[in-house]
Amino acid sequence: MEFLAFIHWNVEPEIFSLGPLSVRWYGLLFAIGFLGGYYQGERMFKFENIKLEWLESLFIYLIVATIIGARLGHVFFYGWDYYSQHPSEILKVWHGGLASHGGALGIIVALILWSRNVSKRPVIWIMDRVVVPTALVAALIRTGNLMNSEIYGIQTSLPWGIIFERNGETVPKHPTQIYEALSYLLTFGVMLYTYWKTDLRNRQGFIVGVFFVMIFLARFLIEFIKEDQEAFESGMALNMGQWLSIPFILGGIYLIVRALKRPPIIYKN
Questions:
Q1: Better-predicted residue by pLDDT, 27 or 1
Q2: Please, what sign has the CA dihedral across residues 191, 196, 198, 200?
Q3: How is residue 59 annotated by DSSP?
Q4: Are the C-beta atoms of 161 and 5 separated by less than 8 Å?
């Protein structure tokens, strides 16, 4: 097993380039995630006999909200000291810097707006459906982080430790991107089963509650072995990612309990 402790990782983040334009693994996986999410959403909408025109507008809302929310989350949660002095850098998403908690908040805002303007149904109804493919998208994004050699963990002696040579590392580190991706895939599987094989999809808030608890509890625990993303996190008992995860975990528990106490709701389309 000793040879496994020296997995050397030096993957080029860029797949190919054409002049000033380049295709990177992160962007490709991000796009694949959204296309896979659209396909899953289409299956769900057809199953429930929901107008596919709703899905098209929802897709646009989500793409815009995810990018804007994730970028602003990074700016305000992790890098405000820098971006407050360099505001022009906020728009330069291609320089890197997206925060999953900001993306989650952006999606929630987008779903509130979409529910008011399009479906006219409670926002919790669409949240129960959107979070199912969202877990798959999150897993692919974390795989993109792996391809970028970023957001990894502290030094480890475990046999699957990875040496991220692109960043000048010389010792194995926890591949926390893989840990998170696998936990998100597990969440995706649990929610798929819940939606397609049980009637819990009709208990509003149950599936999104499961999503919040499983996704953000995994994030909270994995953060203990992850390197700090920003210098100000050094010395904190809980880092920024963990503090931001706690409200989602508590909110998820509340939604699950609330959903189980209330009768199911079935919309006729």
A1: 27
A2: positive
A3: H
A4: yes
Q: Which residues contact 93 (CB under 8 A, 6 or more apart)?
A: 67, 71
Report which of 144, 164, 143 is spatially closest to residue 153, judged by C-alpha positions. Answer: 164
Partnered with residue 153 across adjacent β-strands are: 226
Report d(CA 178, CA 251) in Å as an integer: 26
- 79-117 pLDDT per residue, tens: 878 888 878 778 777 666 777 778 888 888 999 999 999
Burial level of 164, CB count in 10 A (0-12/13-18/19+)? buried
Enter the tokens of residue 205.
């808030």
Single-letter amino acid, residue 263: P
Of 260, 169, 179, whose CA–CA distance to 226 is shortest? 179
Which pLDDT score, from 0 to 100, does residue 3 have? Answer: 47
